[in-house]
Specification:
Rossmann fold, globular, seven-stranded parallel β-sheet, about 220 residues, about 40% helix, alpha/beta, 7 strands
Length: about 220
């Protein structure tokens, strides 16, 4: 089923309806999203190091799924959570706990994100997975996450963004002060409205859609006829 580009509110409505009306667990949708993105990376990276940078919300949880699958496939992967442990809640906290119990390398970033420290973090990586911020962003990126995004862009490393590049507004396709410049974007369910706007391509790179298992009855109103 071909789905037209979605707005931020439409994405929220699809997720909410699938979870509340149909009883589809959000963890199942997160699993499908993360595995689909990991599969794309698996086909392109034969060897090397992959760093997954995670924020405290569901986008970070998607990143946790990516890290777990890459680890299962033998990749040298590490997840870094740019948030205090008490800020990581819900499905993201579940993914962080699973990684810990699975002995997948992960780190809670508990220091200032200075340019030198970020350069050291990124310089040894072959790919970076951007799982910092999702479609719900409605305000400018500030403080820690702004520093991380700026450091990632300076690094010049190839980046796979999950759902949309962190810092990019889903509706306008413009950065909220700063946004990740991705090599490719694994967008979930359908492209976002902002991806069609002039200038967005320099942030999204190649865009491909990952199905996350949302039933067709929920997607029908958004189908391209």
């Amino acid at each position: 089923m071909d789905i037209r580009p979605l707005s931020r509110e439409e994405v929220r409505s699809i997720d909410a309806r699938a979870a509340t009306e149909l009883g589809l667990p959000t963890l199942v949708m997160m699993e499908n999203a993360g595995r689909g993105a990991a599969e794309w990376l698996r086909r392109r990276v034969v060897e090397g190091k992959v760093l997954v940078v995670c924020g405290p919300g569901n986008n970070g949880g998607d990143g946790g799924v990516v890290a777990r699958h890459l680890d299962a496939w033998g990749f040298d992967v590490q997840a870094v959570w740019f948030a205090r442990p008490d800020q990581i809640r819900g499905d993201a906290a579940v993914q962080r706990s699973v990684l810990a119990r699975s002995c997948v390398a992960q780190l809670d970033w508990d220091r200032p994100a200075t340019p030198d420290l970020l350069e050291a973090l990124f310089e040894t990586q072959d790919w970076v997975v951007d799982a910092l911020l999702g479609t719900g962003l409605t305000r400018p990126v500030e403080e820690l996450l702004r520093s991380v995004i700026e450091g990632l862009n300076r690094s010049g490393k190839p980046v796979l963004a999950l759902d949309l590049p962190s810092g990019l507004d889903a509706d306008t396709g413009q950065p909220r002060g700063v946004a990740v410049r991705a090599t490719a974007t694994a967008t979930f369910v359908a492209p976002k409205l902002g991806f069609a706007e002039p200038g967005s391509r320099k942030y999204t790179g190649e865009v491909f859609v990952v199905e996350i298992g949302v039933p067709s009855v929920v997607l029908e109103p958004f189908r391209v006829h």
